[in-house]
Design goal:
This protein is α/β, with parallel strands linked by helices and 281 residues long. It is 39% helix and 13% strand. Strands 3, 4, 5, 6, 7, 8 and 9 form a seven-stranded mixed beta sheet that branches. Strands 1-2 form a two-stranded antiparallel sheet. It contains eight helices and nine strands. It has one domain: SGNH hydrolase (Rossmann fold, 3-Layer(aba) Sandwich). Helix 1 crosses helix 6. A hairpin with a 2-residue loop joins strand 1 and strand 2. About 7% of the residues have low confidence. InterPro entries: GDSL_Rv0518-like, SGNH_hydro, SGNH_hydro_sf.
Length: 281
């Protein structure tokens, strides 16, 4: 989610932006408005990564940058796999959070989304809920921040999700970025960030069936084939922002006008109100 699929970057259509970039852009804009230097930011996320690879490969790089805040968001790809163990995953996550906190760095976690209205993905809802319960407990034990994606009812709307049904659209990412501001104890940029979209008429059953069939052919079958051969969509990819660099506020900050519906993811803080460097994973 943190790499930003599928929120096209307005500055570069070949790249994606996402909630973390939007959050960083908002924090940078607030710093500049206050007469401070721009936020320093890196984004190490790579699509398709499992939790242990995030912790083993990305976390050491993030810590070497000596940030003030690291967003550590992972586990969704694990939970999609049959037989995934949210209790074991929580152990991996807690060890990682402990390492970050021991280094004196703040941590931003995020819960998984509620899949009760997500068709076949409803089958993993129990595992997601168990993992989320662990996340809240880990945050309490280690004094971490949590973005409550599960509780963000506004994204329980198919228009917030891209065609692959597992990644957010521009507006979905925008809502999560606003939820992250709130999680950090800051005022959101958009007062209506949690408001649901206007309701639409129910989709006819025949149209739903055709849509499900198209989704299976376009997204599920290729995903299952990659799993069978032990491959991932991110195998040949590298982080889009591997170096910590000052972030121009206009480069990634989102506004309500960016949210275009179904178009197809740390900053460090000396405290949530004084963000200086951020490194997401």
């Amino acid at each position: 989610m943190t790499e930003g699929l599928w929120d096209p970057d307005p500055q570069d259509p070949e790249r994606v932006r996402g909630w973390a970039d939007q959050l960083a852009g908002s924090l940078s804009a607030r710093r500049v408005d206050a007469g401070l230097t721009a936020l320093e930011y890196a984004n190490l996320a790579i699509r398709g990564r499992l939790l242990e690879r995030i912790v083993d490969e990305q976390l050491p790089v993030a810590l070497e940058a000596e940030p003030d805040l690291i967003s550590l968001v992972g586990g969704g790809n694990d939970l999609l796999r049959p037989g995934s163990d949210p209790d074991r995953m929580a152990g991996v996550l807690e060890d990682a959070v402990h390492r970050v906190r021991r280094a004196g760095v703040d941590v931003l976690l995020a819960t998984g989304t509620d899949t009760r209205q997500a068709g076949v993905l409803r089958a993993i809802r129990g595992r997601v809920a168990v993992y989320n319960a662990h996340i809240w407990s880990i945050a309490r034990r280690h004094d971490a921040y949590v973005v409550d994606v599960w509780g963000l009812r506004a994204i329980q709307d198919w228009r917030m999700w891209a065609q692959d049904r597992i990644h957010l659209t521009t507006e979905g990412h925008q809502r999560v970025a606003q939820a992250a501001l709130v999680a950090l104890g800051l005022t959101p940029d958009d007062e209506a960030w949690a408001d649901p979209l206007a309701r639409l008429a129910p989709v006819p059953s025949g149209q739903r069936f055709r849509s499900d069939a198209e989704w299976f052919v376009r997204d599920v079958y290729p995903w299952a084939t990659r799993r069978l051969w032990g491959r991932s969509s991110g195998d040949t990819r590298v982080p889009k922002r591997p170096q910590v660099e000052p972030l121009a506020p206009s480069a990634t900050a989102a506004t309500p006008s960016d949210a275009t519906g179904p178009t197809a993811g740390a900053a460090g803080t000396g405290g949530p109100g004084s963000a200086e460097r951020v490194t997401p994973q």
